[in-house]
Amino acid sequence: HHNNQQQQHVANLLNHQSEPCINAKHLLFDFISSSIMLKQQGLFLILFSCCWSQSAARFSVNGPVLTVTLKDPDAESGANKWVDLSALRPDARWTVQSRGPPLPNWLPSLKSLRGNLAYNHADFSAVPSSIEADLRFSKEGLGDLEIQPSFHPKSKKTSCTIQATKGSTVNVMAQLNLSGKKLVEAIRGNFMVNLPSSSALSAVKVSPAFDFVRNLPSCTMEGITGSGRTKAVLNLQYNEPTLSVVHALDERNVISPEISLHKAKIVYNWNVILDSGSIRKKK
Predict the structure, then answer these.
(1) ω into residue 64 within 30 of 0, thus cis?
(2) Which residues lie across from 247 on neighbouring strands?
(3) How far apart are CA 281 and CA 37, in angstroms?
(4) What is the DSSP string of 172-207?
(5) In a 3-state reduction of DSSP, which class is residue 174?
């Protein structure tokens, strides 16, 4: 009986000692788990901060740029024109521009990316008036490609302009309407051929175009002299073909007489370039 009491006492001691050991093991496990979770959260925060700092370094935000139109009060009737917000016609615009190639590792041919968000005075609301983007691609040997999609929430119109260039000799542009009946609205091209130096002309430029909305073709042919100060322009518009000669008298004065091939009407144009603008006169 005495031996049985000693065995029971030893068993009770072992049980009392095992409970703190088990609790200590649980506490140690919880501490290690919490440490691992904190380390993971810290690594995530560090990674997020690095990605955010890199993204912020690659893009710059400009805006809001507010534009208002001021009118002459004497030209308007009514006394409340100065306090009428619609008379000022305010427009707001935000622009996000990449400072370099936005995706150098994933898409190295994408050289720049820009996004515009505009609010027009006529429909100020929570929905912007237009959302525009500009993507510029470039690859050595192939040329440059520019894609400009745009969306107007009010009219639900989605359009896109695609322009491909190769140096100064080839330029092709297409205007697409992604929400209309006709996908291609207009297409234009510019093709320049450089002539030998012994020729009186240095280059010949041909610019065909076709308007699919109005079904109107057109084509412009230009002959440029070696000095670059004089060129002859043959504009083969469907309704009003013209022939003109553009000559630069100096750095500021440009004259360009134009004759209508359909009505034989002659128009004399004189363009004076100023430091902050220009003056044009037709006679």
Answers:
(1) yes
(2) 230, 255
(3) 76
(4) EEEEEETTSS-SEEEEEEEEEEEPPTTSSEEEEEEE
(5) strand
What stretches of 59-79 show up as alpha helix (H) in DSSP? none
Q: What is the DSSP string of 199-250?
A: SSEEEEEEEEEEETTTTEEEEEEEEEETTSSEEEEEE--SS--EEEEEEESS
Structure-model confidence comparison of residues 227 and 10, the more confident one = 227
How do residues 207-245 score in pLDDT, each as one tens digit?
Answer: 999 999 889 999 999 998 888 889 999 999 888 899 999
The amino acid at residue 133 is: A
Q: Which token pair is 254?
A: 């440009």
Q: Which residues on adjacent β-strands are paired with residue 145?
A: 137, 164
Phi, psi (degrees; rounded to nearest 5) at 129: -75, -35
Contact call for residues 195 and 202 (beta carbons, < 8 A) = yes
Asked if 212 and 182 count as a contact pair (C-beta separation under 8 A), the reply is yes
19 CB neighbour count, 10 Å cutoff: 9
For 77-156, strand residue ranges (E) read 91-98, 110-119, 130-139, 143-152
Residue 145 CA to residue 174 CA, distance in Å, equals 12
For residues 74-99, b (16+ Cβ closer than 10 Å) or e, as one string? eeeeeeeeeeeeebbeebbbebebbe
- Give CA angle at 157 (178, 133), nearest 5°: 80
**48-99 residue pLDDT tens:** 444 444 555 678 888 778 777 766 555 555 545 455 555 667 788 889 898 8
Q: Which residues pair with 59 in a beta bridge?
A: 98
pLDDT band at 156 (very low <50, low <70, confident <90, very high): confident
